[in-house]
Write a structure and sequence with these properties.
Strand order of the largest sheet of chain A: 3-5-4
Largest sheet of chain B: 3 strands, antiparallel
Order of helices and strands of chain B: HHHEEHHEHHEEHH
Number of domains of chain B: 2
Strand order of the largest sheet of chain B: 3-5-4
Shape of chain B: elongated
CATH superfamily of the largest domain in chain B: Winged helix-like DNA-binding domain superfamily/Winged helix DNA-binding domain
CATH architecture of the largest domain in chain B: Orthogonal Bundle
Strand content of chain B: 5-15%
Number of helices of chain A: 9
Radius of gyration of chain A: 32 Å
Oligomer: heterotrimer
């Protein structure tokens, strides 16, 4: 992901705002490290508020960028941002002795964040040495030569060492694509059903028939989600006063009659279609940008 | 058999092998002790210092390699084996696995602060990382590096990995705190 | 490029190249005259006089060989039981060739995820695998198993190889999967 962000804030009014230029950042730790190292600062409380401002500005700009951001990244960013914000708030308050539990918790949160950051930085630096090693290792070419015919004639009979069945099992294992195991999450990703869309279908059907049973109205529904969506649409339309429910007895047939206009736009709600995200790691599988 | 004869015999053998040979195998063939063979190998290693080739121990075995300074000349002959480069994300993930193995994907993810699923797949597909049983408590799949990983890094064994200590400040109990956090 | 550099470059090349290399080829690669290369080779030849290997010109090309004085050590190494049993890497490569023949080395490499050059050479040397024409599009050498392979596995014909699970992707499908993973 390449992002170049220009952000002006009044937080740093004295210097007339600042801009953030970051390339190829990879998660919140990565970003924090970049911010800290760009200011050539120790990870100290003094630098915290400046770094916090930049971090938050970065998150705002991500939001504003229109391309949105991924849930798993977003939650990580938010956790880090919230911790930073807490720490910044503590900086703004008059300094004094640690008085209560909350101050202690704040200090602990800072230590934990820094510890994780230090750990990440350690592996990032190691990764650089790995890269150097691989680059160097690629420059050594091994001597790989066939045995001289006079010598290969001396070789004892080769021992394959396994029978045909075992041999086939090896082939099967080698030929099977090496794909990391993957927990299917398709059941968590039911195709989204839009209440607004179903609402339009319901209005259309009712205008045509004037009166329908709920059973008929959902007879062509592919799954339960559609049935639920149409029911929600009915409730919303009822609230707008364009239809009437009749149910002779409890749990009996639900009859719906259209009382609204013959033509024209019916206001369609979108309150049911606002995405709700599950805070579940598995639900975001495969949606990472690496 | 004199020291020089041991050295010359080792040279003669390594000139015909197509895969790395361990000190033990050489010792058995030459009817010498492993120590004698090790010393001979060390002397040979030094004697090639100004040559266009060298002797290296990678992944537990010895063989001849061309010297890296002359790789550009060699590359004109050896078109094969040009490996595609690993991304920064793959390198970072690989280094976490190398130092924390066996390790679950969730833990690697926690240390890097991002979802590592796609990167882990790439590393497994490239043969650098493989499964290594299940974590006792959680049942999560554990991963470790392969012997091909050692070859690619030109390492003899995992013990030759650079120490993590200089990179990771030795704060008292840091590892324990981190463990409890990332579990 | 100094005389020493010419010598070192030649050493590096000859150490890893399997086929004998002519003076002309070396001269072209190093951008030197044939005379300069000849003189460098002569100096190198002399410099190996007390080594366990030597440089020899065979069939118009130069190549490293073990010195004849140490042939008994080399023969003992070759005859040693170590060499008669196939390694796991060789077995895996052999199984890919057996079930996907005729197949190029690049394809076997792609399936196994590692460079198989050394192992393929072993399999050819051991008479289990042989060349079988060229791939139409790429001109790459194709390999197939030999009748000696069938004999050693105790089979009458390739049709007697146990069938693999039907769900395994064929080569084309597999390549796509591999591509998509390593992108």
């Amino acid at each position: 992901m390449d992002l170049s962000v220009e952000e002006s804030t009044d937080v740093n009014a004295a210097t007339g705002g600042f801009s953030v230029h970051l390339d190829n950042f990879d998660g919140p730790f990565d970003l924090l490290l970049q911010l800290i190292s760009r200011h050539k600062m120790d990870i100290t409380e003094i630098s915290l508020s400046l770094v916090t401002d930049e971090f938050i500005a970065f998150i705002r700009s991500l939001e504003a960028s229109g391309e949105g951001w991924r849930l798993d990244q977003a939650t990580e960013f938010l956790v880090v941002a919230a911790t930073l914000l807490d720490l910044k708030a503590a900086r703004l308050l008059p300094s004094g002795e640690i008085e209560d539990e909350e101050d202690l918790a704040l200090l602990e949160a800072r230590d934990i964040l820094f510890a994780r950051l230090l750990q990440y930085r350690a592996f990032k630096e190691i990764a650089a040495t790995f890269n150097e090693r691989i680059t160097l290792a690629d420059k050594y070419f091994p001597r790989v030569v066939a045995l001289d015919p006079t010598l290969s004639a001396l070789l004892p009979e080769v021992l394959i060492g396994v029978g045909p069945q075992r041999f086939a099992a090896i082939a099967e294992r080698v030929l099977t694509p090496k794909v990391a195991p993957h927990v299917s999450v398709e059941h968590l990703h039911r195709p989204l059903v839009s209440v607004a869309e179903e609402s339009r279908l319901v209005v259309e059907a009712l205008r045509r028939s004037k009166s329908m049973s709920f059973r008929n109205l959902v007879s062509d529904a592919e799954n339960t989600m559609v049935i639920v969506a149409r029911f929600l649409a009915l409730l919303d339309l009822y609230r707008q006063g364009v239809l009437r429910f009749d149910q002779v007895m409890a749990l009996g047939e639900l009859q719906i009659s259209w009382t609204g206009s013959e033509t024209g736009e019916v206001e369609v709600t979108d309150e049911f279609d606002i995405p709700v995200f599950l805070e579940n790691d598995e639900a975001n599988e495969g949606s990472v940008n690496e | 058999m004199s020291n020089v004869e041991i050295e010359r015999s080792i040279e003669a053998i390594l000139m015909v092998v197509d895969e790395p040979v361990s000190e033990l195998t050489l010792a058995q063939v030459l009817e010498k002790t492993v120590e004698e063979v090790e010393m001979a190998l060390a002397r040979l290693e030094t004697s090639y210092e100004d040559r266009g080739f060298c002797l290296r121990k990678v992944n537990g075995g010895w063989r001849f390699y061309s010297s890296p300074e002359f790789s550009s000349a060699v590359e004109k002959f050896v078109l094969d084996g040009q490996q595609s480069r690993l991304t920064q994300a793959a390198l970072e993930t690989l280094s976490v696995i190398a130092y924390r193995q066996p390790v679950s994907r969730a833990r690697v993810s926690a240390i890097r602060g991002v979802n590592v699923e796609a990167v882990m797949k790439t590393l497994v597909t490239r043969g650098l990382v493989e499964e290594s049983g299940l974590e006792h408590e959680t049942g999560a799949i554990l991963y470790k590096t392969t012997s091909y990983f050692l070859e690619r890094l030109g390492l003899n064994s995992l013990e030759d990995l650079p120490a993590l200590a200089p990179y990771l400040p030795d704060l008292d109990g840091l590892d324990e705190i981190l463990d409890s956090l990332t579990d």
